[in-house]
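> forwarded from #structure-qc
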């Protein structure tokens, strides 16, 4: 069978599979022989070294081997027990399986049995309960199961470790050379000292040592990163080669004028980000840049300068924002910054009255409005521009891909700046936002004080309430935040309402409280938020709907209830609602986590204030699935690769991909080399 044939051959023709079992594999997306070769183990057990019965460690996973000496079945009602006595050259071991009566037919005296599990003392005897086991046949001494580093695969209903290993051994030994073609250029493999692909796959399934396994994993991880980065760079090069933007002409004078009206000095990060924008906006290649800044780092100021450049270059700008209240906030900020420089700004949301909306739409089409700030209302079909040159999107994952592209699909193509307050580790940003150039802002503006964060037990709750009351009497404000989890949403909202009533009547009867959560209609919610921003409410009781919300410098205190139910990065985002003025701010985490990971999360937040460092720790704790709202799936981007833990390999792959694509001409972009097309096609898609 030729390579292409084996590569796409149906799995049912592989020895040990057959039509019935192939249906089970199809449920987990495995249809071909090539697919199953990329079903990598989730972990490995070193079963090459058996521990004799006189040296079994207590309470630790161990592999041992012995002969079945006796088998007893105790048909206890509700919990039948199968007891097997094993012996080796130096001792005996009792093994018990609970509530698995079907196993009694498997074991007979004289059989050889391999066990993997933990040994404990039970009634003065050593006992192993419910271990993994394998019966040893004389012909299996050199098998997939024993006497080696043994792969442990992810399972689904109808698949078992032993049969799965047998099938993989058949595929590796008899189909690997035909099903796998190594298309990675030899010069790349040689330069980076990468293992050949067929050998890497062989070692991933049946490694001869853990050192060789690490080399095999490095090759597979490189392929995952390399194919991903190649696709990103091809996409970027396609945009740059096929589309043109209008080059902005305003530079030096605009910067001087801008700095003169600012009531503060720019931070070094803001200066650097503005330099990035000046360079990008001065070209006819469309800008596609991500401005990533921690909460309160001053991203809006950077965007304001971009709007000034656009206006002075005769271009219009759009500032697209996910919520009305946030749009109003940005509108007020930009008005203060830019109207002294003669830049006219308007606000367009669903709440704008019809007459005003009609006027705004007409003036936009005539080019009379240089900067429009708004929500999804800007994306309506009747909203047209005379000369749109710049789009700025705040928290782009709040908008659909089609919605974002609506504004970009015009000639000339507008420049695009995406802003996010969601701190993402640099290496993950290279994957999540890999098609965007990156500007990072870390410093906080002068005068901002770090937020003091405390992990508090329920015993001290009353003391915290008294402390908050004393600060509110001085004119400050506070948030009290409750978690809302999708699976228990109704109960969570009910608990938040109940606690709001208790706080209002019993704890803070002399203060004004407001309540917002996701089930309150938008108009009511935004009315409450506006009242809070006008200081008409002292304490805002809320759910995580305030995670991206009002900028209220007077809010200096926050209580987060059941803090263990939030992710680390989300806790940091919530905490970022305070500490936005010159007053000292405090965040109190009420939580009693049961797991070590939960305790670690709260401890870290009391010690760390850098959002990027927090994001790194969050990724290590939670993996690369549901993070920061960027991907709402628990699935990882890659099968094996981890953007933070495998950072050196990611940077290698990115460098190689960038070097390759940068050498492509326009024709090559449209029709990449055949080897590259096949390389990208054959990579398993998990992202």
């Amino acid at each position: 069978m030729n390579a292409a044939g084996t590569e796409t051959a149906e799995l049912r023709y592989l020895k040990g599979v057959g039509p019935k079992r192939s249906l089970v594999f199809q449920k987990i997306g495995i249809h071909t022989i090539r697919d199953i070769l990329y079903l990598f183990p989730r972990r490995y057990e070193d079963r090459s070294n058996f521990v004799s019965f006189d040296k079994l460690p207590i309470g630790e996973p161990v592999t041992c081997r012995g002969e079945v000496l006796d088998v007893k079945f105790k048909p206890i009602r509700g919990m039948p027990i199968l007891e097997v006595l094993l012996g080796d050259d130096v001792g005996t071991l009792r093994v018990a399986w609970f509530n698995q009566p079907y196993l009694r037919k498997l074991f007979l005296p004289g059989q050889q049995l391999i066990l993997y599990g933990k040994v404990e003392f039970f009634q003065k005897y050593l006992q192993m309960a419910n271990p993994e086991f394998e019966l040893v046949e004389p012909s299996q001494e050199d098998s997939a199961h024993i006497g080696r580093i043994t792969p442990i695969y992810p399972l689904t209903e109808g698949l078992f470790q032993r049969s799965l290993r047998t099938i993989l051994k058949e595929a590796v030994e008899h189909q690997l050379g035909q099903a796998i073609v190594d298309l990675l250029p030899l010069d790349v493999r040689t330069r980076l000292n990468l293992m050949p692909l067929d050998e890497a796959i062989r070692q991933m399934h049946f490694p001869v040592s853990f050192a060789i396994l690490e080399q095999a994993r490095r090759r597979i991880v490189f392929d995952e990163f390399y194919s991903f980065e190649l696709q990103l760079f091809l996409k970027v090069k396609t945009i740059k080669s096929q589309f043109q933007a209008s080059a902005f002409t305003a530079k030096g004078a605009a910067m001087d004028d801008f700095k003169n009206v600012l009531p503060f000095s720019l931070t070094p990060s803001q200066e650097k980000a503005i330099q990035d924008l000046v360079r990008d906006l001065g070209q006819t290649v469309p800008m596609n840049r991500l401005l990533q800044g921690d909460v309160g780092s001053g991203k809006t100021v950077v965007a304001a300068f971009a709007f000034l450049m656009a206006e002075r270059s005769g271009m219009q700008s759009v500032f697209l924002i996910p919520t009305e209240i946030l749009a109003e906030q940005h509108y007020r900020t930009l008005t203060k910054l830019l109207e002294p420089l003669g830049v006219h700004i308007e606000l367009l949301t669903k709440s704008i009255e019809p007459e005003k909306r009609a006027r705004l739409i007409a003036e936009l089409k005539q080019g009379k409005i240089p900067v429009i700030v708004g929500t999804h209302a800007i994306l309506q079909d009747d909203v047209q521009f005379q000369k749109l040159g710049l789009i700025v999107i705040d928290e782009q994952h709040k908008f659909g891909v089609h919605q974002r592209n609506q504004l970009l699909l015009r000639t000339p193509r507008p420049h695009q700046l995406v802003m996010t307050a969601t701190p993402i580790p640099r290496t993950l940003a290279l994957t999540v936002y890999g098609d965007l150039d990156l500007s990072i802002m870390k410093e906080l503006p002068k005068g901002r004080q770090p937020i003091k964060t405390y992990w508090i037990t329920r015993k001290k709750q009353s003391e915290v309430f008294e402390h908050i009351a004393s600060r509110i009497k001085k004119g400050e404000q506070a948030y009290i935040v409750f978690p809302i989890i999708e699976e228990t949403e109704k109960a969570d909202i009910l608990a938040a309402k109940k606690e709001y009533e208790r706080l209002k009547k019993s704890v803070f009867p002399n203060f004004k409280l407001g309540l917002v959560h996701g089930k309150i209609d938008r108009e009511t919610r935004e009315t409450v938020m506006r009242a809070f921003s006008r200081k008409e409410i002292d304490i805002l009781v809320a759910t995580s709907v305030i995670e991206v919300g009002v900028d209220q410098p007077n809010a200096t205190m926050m209580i987060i209830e059941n803090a263990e139910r939030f992710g680390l990065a989300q806790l940091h985002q919530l905490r970022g609602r305070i500490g936005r003025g010159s007053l000292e701010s405090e965040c109190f985490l009420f939580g009693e986590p049961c797991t070590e990971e939960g305790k670690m999360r709260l401890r870290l937040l009391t010690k760390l204030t850098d959002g990027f460092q927090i994001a790194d720790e969050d990724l290590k704790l939670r993996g690369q699935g549901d993070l920061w709202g960027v991907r709402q799936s628990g699935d990882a981007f890659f099968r094996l690769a981890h953007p933070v833990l495998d950072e050196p390999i990611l940077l290698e792959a990115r460098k190689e991909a960038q070097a390759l694509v940068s050498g492509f001409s326009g024709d090559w972009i449209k029709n990449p080399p055949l080897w590259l097309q096949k390389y990208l096609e054959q990579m398993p898609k998990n992202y």
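QC bot note: The radius of gyration is 31 Å. The chain has four domains: 1-46+152-177, 49-147, 252-441, 452-608.
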